[in-house]
Design a protein that fits this description.
mainly alpha
Length: 243
């Protein structure tokens, strides 16, 4: 049983060592301005993390062999590597968590913008004068142009008698109704487009909490959300490095 527990513990420690090295390599490689610089920084971080894991063995072996001239500088270097690795783990955890929260916040802001634009268009649509569908109004205009009054007024450019003026007034009301109908059709198309954008954003996760874990814990513990987020980043980095 003890051997099994030791084997499981060793496996877990190796996994955490690989995770720590991966986090550090990923963080430092991201600081490179070019692919070559990224490779150099990533390799340096990986090598430092490997030495961080192996130096305790060398230190213990040197201590048992009474080689204190190796133990002291090696211990100093090990502390330096642990601090370096811890800072890299902080950077990786912060970039990952804060970056993810930033992406969520950006999606939420975009969804809010889409919804606000959609509401404004719906208000514009409601403010338009009453009108029939554009096709119906166009048919009415075409019929009016076949009326004798249309010819006698030269296309409503010379309405002199009362009947002609009433006919032309009705004709221009149809023109106004057609303009309102076309405007309404354009607004409805924009509303449908925004509605589709909103559905796409929701499907991608827009509208959710920016960082549900930190927000839940901050409400339970009475801490600020930013402070809770920082605490979770710190815990993640320390857990990996201690492991």
């Amino acid at each position: 049983m003890r051997l099994l527990a030791t084997g499981i513990g060793l496996l877990a420690a190796l996994v955490l060592a690989v995770v720590s090295a991966s986090m550090n390599v990923s963080f430092l490689a991201a600081l490179g301005r070019t692919e070559t610089e990224s490779l150099i920084l990533g390799a340096a971080s990986g090598a430092a993390d490997g030495l961080k894991a192996l130096l305790p063995f060398f230190i213990v072996w040197a201590w048992r062999a009474w080689r204190y001239g190796f133990v002291i500088p090696a211990s100093f270097v090990w502390v330096l590597f642990v601090g370096f690795s811890l800072l890299s783990a902080f950077g990786f955890a912060a970039g990952n968590r804060i970056g993810k929260a930033g992406e969520q916040a950006a999606m939420n802001a975009e969804l809010t913008r889409v919804q606000n634009d959609k509401n404004k268009l719906q208000e514009r649509l409601a403010s338009l004068p009453n009108h029939r569908p554009a096709a119906v109004v166009q048919a009415a205009i075409a019929a009016a142009r076949q009326h004798p009054r249309w010819q006698s007024t030269q296309g409503c450019s010379d309405a002199t008698v009362p009947d002609s003026r009433r006919f032309c007034a009705a004709y221009y009301r149809l023109i106004g109704e057609l303009a309102a109908a076309k405007q309404a059709d354009g607004i409805r198309r924009q509303i449908r487009k925004l509605a589709a954008q909103g559905k796409t954003l929701v499907a991608k996760g827009a509208g959710r909490s920016v960082d549900p874990q930190s927000q839940l814990l901050s409400s339970i513990l009475g801490l600020g959300s930013d402070h809770m987020q920082l605490a979770l980043i710190t815990i993640l980095a320390i857990v990996v490095e201690l492991g």
